[in-house]
Amino acid sequence: MTHRYWLPLMFAAFGAVLAARADSPTPTKPRAGAGSGSQLTIEEVRNRCKKLLEMQEAVFRETKSLDNDLQEAEDDKARNAVVQKSNDQCVDQNKIVIECTKALDMLEEEGSTVAFPESFRLLRKDMMNVETRLKSSDVGAMTQNIEEDIIEELKQMVEDLWSLKRFGPARPSDDIKGKLLGLRAELKRVRSMQIRVNNRTKMYHEAYPDEEQLKPENAKDPKVKAKLEQIQKELEELSNKEATIQRIIREIVQRRSK
After folding, report:
1. Which of 35, 48, 148, 206 is the most exposed, having the fewest neighbouring CB atoms within 10 Å of its CB?
2. Cα angle at 195 between 190 and 201, to 5 degrees?
């Protein structure tokens, strides 16, 4: 989705909020404490995000170290040591997936936002793909790139959750300023998701410019075949993410226009 499509969708979303405001009754003063539970939930998710960031950075550092060890390995004993350590990192990555699921469950239960739960859901798929790669001792550049992508997304998520807490669900539904700022926080999250999809697509294309290279049936080595099957799965997920992003934008417009 280029800016040619992104900007009209964004303006349509803002327009929907303004149109809803024009038809809405005179705003009433929100009751004291309204939205405090939602704010608390988002802050808890934000703290989990910080924890996830620390955990993923630790796995990334170890993955880089294992990649160096693998490049320098001169015998089967050294290579087997890398395999064992990679399996250990797979266990740590699974803990990250579990922690991400907890954050997702909290956001879904809170229920005031569309983009953030979906963003966590897509992020969890990347985390699970890293887990699969580490299980097969794939500690190379592409695995590291996905890990770096997760780290950058978590950093951005921490910032976006702060914006959501400040401007989003805590605002009364008839507060036009709150609705616009909350909308901006959600659209910013969607834009970040789109950038990740674009960057990931570029990464795969640069690594495998020839589509024939990606066909598992062309691989004779079982390990290479398994790796290509994993990449095909990730490419299919990328395609699904594009459709998900477009659906999220439509849902945001519908929700915020009410």
Report:
1. 206
2. 130
Beta strand residue intervals within 102-202, DSSP E: none
Is 69's pLDDT higher than 80?
yes
Q: How far apart are CA 102 and CA 21, in angstroms?
A: 35
**How far is Cα 107 from Cα 126, in angstroms, rounded to an integer?**
19
pTM above 0.70, yes or no: yes
Q: Where are the domains of the chain?
A: 31-256
Amino acid at 138: D
- Give Cβ neighbours of residue 16 (< 8 Å, ≥ 6 apart): 253, 254, 256, 257
Domain at 31-256, CATH class: mainly alpha
CA dihedral 48, 52, 54, 57 (to 10 degrees): -160
CA gap 12, 248 in Å, rounded: 14
Where b means 16+ CB within 10 Å and e means fewer, 29-65 reads eeeeeebeebbebbebbbebbeebbebbbebbebbbe
